[in-house]
Amino acid sequence: MLDVFVIGGGINGTSVARDAVGRGYSVALAEMNDLASGTSSAATKLIHGGLRYLEHYEFRLVHEALAEREVLWASAPHIIWPLRFVLPHHKGLRPAMVLRAGLALYDHMGGRRLLPPTKTLDLTRDEAGKPLKPGYKLAFEYSDCWVNDARFVVLNARDAADKGATIHVRTKVVSAKREDGGWTIELDGEAGRQTVRARMLINASGPWVDEVINQTMGKNAAHNVRLVQGSHIVTKKLYDHDRCYFFQNSDGRIFFAIPYEGEFTLIGTTDRDYRGDPKDVAITPEETDYLLKAANEYFAQGVSRDDIVWSYSGVRPLFDDGASAAQEATRDYVLKLEGNAADGAVVNVFGGKLTTSRRLAESVLEKIEEVLGRKGPAWTKGGTLPGGDFGPKSFDAEVRRLGLDYPGLPAPLLSRLMRLYGTKARAVLGAAKSTADLGDHFGTDLYGAEVDYLVANEWARTAQDILWRRTKLGLTVGPEDVARLEGYLADHVALRPSPA
Ligand code: FAD
């Protein structure tokens, strides 16, 4: 019998699986679709304290989240990196002195060591003022971090598997019943129907958490989550510098404009209650209008529907704390332990953020220890994710080293691979001397070697997995490339065993 079975391959499930297996528990995880296909690839992609949550007095969350920024950056400096945020001041906001004081608190609350502190900008002279409409004179510039959210999930799963966890993808947990001092769990997926036994269940199914409690575990009418939809649009690049804008409207609603994938700007997000099936969530015309209108209030260059190249939408599975407005519902996580070692125990996970996922996993591990007894010590603070073993601040040096190892390969390709795979980029490239050695070409700089790596090591099965989650090359490849990639995968995926 397994010690721990995790339902859900989003950031919370994979983080718990990784932490638990690293402490010596036997672990398996099932994800009904692709890893990170739920909320965890639909985020604004910030590792942040959440300046706005200070206004809602969520001090515990902000403190924990701020402290995580440098911990996570050090654990995965290929997919997480510092970002400077420009917050333009205007009459509709709190007085500049008050904002400056809030940012001073933000700077000091979370034990910042490497990230640069807040500074004041004169927008009439600073480059950050140029893309904005005239009239913005003063801004504050502060630090948070960026994360490639979908890869954050996959690397947690990869690390868990490297340490001995079994990861089932495209495998749904269809029922979980308490029997003979543990759980009997029915799986339906790639390997057909299977039954597994586990002493403890972790329900990390995000927006589906109530559905899993009610239907999979056969409980009655649990209602714990409030689904809050958030959507983003991606436009052609709106400005040239590498900083992000944090805009706060006079009505208190905020949104970000972030440099994205080299050629684009990411604009989001919205906040609206969602009552449909989480799998059907899609940006609404009203949300698109709202984001365009919001961008047009600040940027001098007009932004229209024609500039939108992609959009995505997800639902935050927030713990239902009874807040009246969607923006006010708590972003903190809540864990509920039920049952005991004799009958089988479950931890239901509600809420959480990418930023606090490692700490959430540590809290889940406290509950696992309570039930199953302690095995190893906490270890993820200071651990690295696959490919991230080169330390913060050394990314450029690593790209140069890769360039020395592969002088015949184009610099943009090497840089892109370092951003996605870190030191594992060498495992993607093998002994290639030029792009001719990288196999079939699927448009832009996607070659067979990378596709094979993703299939063999990262549970990629479909073109969608590769183009929109393991990479974001979907933004640049053409329809014929997609068709060719689909054909290649149809021939290759069936021939390959799943990653261990
Ligand atoms: P999910 O990622 O949804 O994972 C749950 C998984 O469970 C799904 O993949 C689903 O397929 C699977 N599943 C469900 N039922 C079953 C079953 N029966 N069997 C097998 N598998 C099952 N956080 C930040 O830190 N920074 C941000 O900038 C940020 N921005 C956000 C912006 C938006 C618009 C949204 C929506 C969220 C944002 N978040 C952000 C929050 C963060 O994305 C989420 O808290 C986090 O991704 C939730 O992860 P999860 O693992 O709980 O859920």
Protein architecture, described:
The chain has 500 residues and is α+β, with helices and mostly antiparallel strands. The chain has 3 domains: 2-39 and 150-224 and 331-382, FAD/NAD(P)-binding domain (3-Layer(bba) Sandwich), CATH 3.50.50; 227-319, 2-Layer Sandwich (D-Amino Acid Oxidase, Chain A, domain 2), CATH 3.30.9.10; 395-495, Helicase, Ruva Protein, domain 3 (Orthogonal Bundle). Helix content is 32%, strand content 25%. The chain contains 14 helices and 18 strands. It has helices spanning 11-22, 51-55, 59-75, 96-109, 149-162, 209-216, 285-298, 357-372, 395-405, 411-421, 425-429, 448-457, 463-470, 479-492, and strands spanning 2-7, 27-30, 46-47, 80-88, 119-122, 138-147, 166-168, 171-179, 182-189, 192-203, 225-236, 244-248, 254-260, 264-268, 272-273, 308-319, 334-340, 344-350. Strands 3, 4, 5, 6, 11, 12, 13, 14, 15 and 16 form a 10-stranded mixed sheet that branches. Strands 1, 2, 7, 8, 9, 10, 17 and 18 form an 8-stranded mixed sheet that branches. The longest helix is centred in the N-terminal third of the chain and has 17 residues, at 59-75. The structure holds flavin-adenine dinucleotide. Flavin-adenine dinucleotide binds next to helix 1, strand 8, helix 6 and strand 16.
